[in-house]
Amino acid sequence: MKIVEAEAGGEDENGKLLVANVVLNRVNSNIFPDTVTGVVYQKEFGVCQFSPVSDGRLNSCSVSEKTVEAVNRALSG
Fold first, then answer.
1. How much is the pLDDT for 68?
2. Cβ atoms < 10 Å from Cβ of 16
3. d(CA 3, CA 60)
4. What does the pLDDT read at residue 4?
């Protein structure tokens, strides 16, 4: 949930859903790590796939209720 907040905290529900779905689609793909943590922290050629990981926003954000709702919706399909 923190990656969704850090990437799309200022976005509407659709923006948050898009980020959540990117993460979930990568988890379900054979070419990416098979866990959310693995996807979020994956580096390709030494570069983080999500900018909040590289700039520290991931560790300093607080997850809003709207983000929780969007992630739960993404998890529900």
1. 96
2. 26
3. 11
4. 97
| DSSP SS3 for 9 | coil
Amino acid (1-letter code) at residue 74: A
Distance CA 13, CA 75 (A): 14
Q: With b meaning 16 or more CB within 10 Å and e meaning fewer, what string describes 25-52?
A: ebbeeeebeeeeeebbeeeeeeeebbeb
Which helix (H) or strand (E) element contains residue 13? helix 13-28
CB neighbours (10 Å) of residue 68? Answer: 14
C-alpha span between 17 and 20 (Å, rounded): 5
Tokens of 69: 């709702």
Residue indicated by tokens 């607080």:
62
DSSP state of 11: S
